[in-house]
Automatic annotation (TrEMBL):
<dbReference type="InterPro" id="IPR051455">
    <property type="entry name" value="Bact_solute-bind_prot3"/>
</dbReference>
<feature type="domain" description="Ionotropic glutamate receptor C-terminal">
    <location>
        <begin position="51"/>
        <end position="265"/>
    </location>
</feature>
<dbReference type="InterPro" id="IPR001638">
    <property type="entry name" value="Solute-binding_3/MltF_N"/>
</dbReference>
<dbReference type="Pfam" id="PF00497">
    <property type="entry name" value="SBP_bac_3"/>
</dbReference>
<protein>
    <submittedName>
        <fullName>Glutamine ABC transporter substrate-binding protein</fullName>
    </submittedName>
</protein>
<keyword id="KW-0732">Signal</keyword>
<dbReference type="InterPro" id="IPR001320">
    <property type="entry name" value="Iontro_rcpt_C"/>
</dbReference>
<comment type="similarity">
    <text>Belongs to the bacterial solute-binding protein 3 family.</text>
</comment>
<feature type="domain" description="Solute-binding protein family 3/N-terminal">
    <location>
        <begin position="42"/>
        <end position="266"/>
    </location>
</feature>
<feature type="signal peptide">
    <location>
        <begin position="1"/>
        <end position="25"/>
    </location>
</feature>
<keyword id="KW-0813">Transport</keyword>
């Protein structure tokens, strides 16, 4: 009896030690990400790598570049100080929430619209960018707006995990929607004539049009897509710091400088409307 008691106490003590050493007893929700990041002096961000202007892999130097990436770098410095490091992990519209939930990334900054459905599973910062859904079509296309797509026989291309594919089903219910894995594949599909239009946010489409002169953005915007930084539920102090950083960037002109850097020379895109 005594022996068994001793063994049980020993096992319990060993468990406690292991748990406190590895932190494995803590679920993600219990971990204070802000505190951990302050300790490591690093924030791990999920960014797009297939989206020109927001997050695009530059094969020449293997760096991901874009507005979201620069925002992440600035927010990191505001939170951790000038020596703070931003680390980047590639995400797609589909993989970003699972990667956050699994703890592979601390935050998502990846053209992600704040929606009520998503807000049930992640927490969002205040909006840091105003986008809206639009259409990309070949230059010779007759399609002028989303109503022109609302006919049988029309195929609209989009990306899995993007809310644009849900939206287009509402705005053009008669069209067929083909969902590709990422924006690079969606553009290839448009070029191959697999659909009459590609739909997502205007900024993303302008990024494609800049690189592909045979295509144009049409129809203005038919939805509002406010982008937010997403973090796991239960990380309120982290969200507060992110909001503070965004506010500081807007107050000291850093934000508008980034808007000008990325959107100042995009034909057809009025970057002045994006300034804050
Ligand atoms: N902003 C939209 C979304 O969050 C479309 C862009 C994207 O696929 O990331 O789903």
């Amino acid at each position: 009896m005594r022996r068994r008691f001793k063994l049980a106490t020993l096992t319990a003590a060993l468990c406690l030690l292991l748990v406190s050493l590895s932190g494995c007893g803590q679920s993600l929700a219990q971990k204070d990400i802000l505190q951990l990041d302050r300790h490591s002096n690093e924030i791990t961000w999920g960014v797009k790598a297939d989206t020109k202007l927001f997050g695009l892999m530059d094969v020449r130097d293997n760096q991901i570049k874009g507005f979201d990436v620069d925002m992440a770098k600035h927010i990191t410095k505001h939170i951790l100080g000038t020596k703070g490091q931003a680390k980047f992990i590639q995400v797609t519209s589909q993989s970003r929430i699972p990667l956050l939930k699994n703890g592979n990334i601390d935050a998502i900054i990846a053209t992600m619209t704040i929606t009520p459905e998503r807000a049930k599973i992640v927490d969002f910062s205040n909006s840091y960018f105003d986008a809206g859904q639009s259409l990309l079509v070949p230059n010779g296309s007759d399609i002028k707006n989303v109503r022109d797509l609302n006919k049988p026989g029309m195929t609209v291309l989009g990306v899995v995990g993007a809310n644009s594919v849900q939206n287009i089903k509402k705005y053009a219910p008669k069209a067929r929607v083909l969902e590709l894995q990422d924006y690079a594949q969606a553009l290839t599909s448009l070029k191959a004539g697999q659909g009459q239009a590609l739909t997502t946010d205007n900024g993303i489409l302008y990024g494609m049009a800049v690189q592909n002169p045979g295509f144009k953005v049409v129809g203005g915007t038919f939805t509002k897509e406010p982008y937010g930084v997403a973090v796991n539920k239960g990380q309120r102090p982290f969200v507060r710091e992110i909001n503070k950083a965004i506010k500081e960037m807007q107050a000291d002109g850093e934000y508008n400088a980034l808007i000008k850097k990325w959107f100042g020379n995009v034909p057809g895109f009025n970057y002045k409307e994006l300034e804050r």
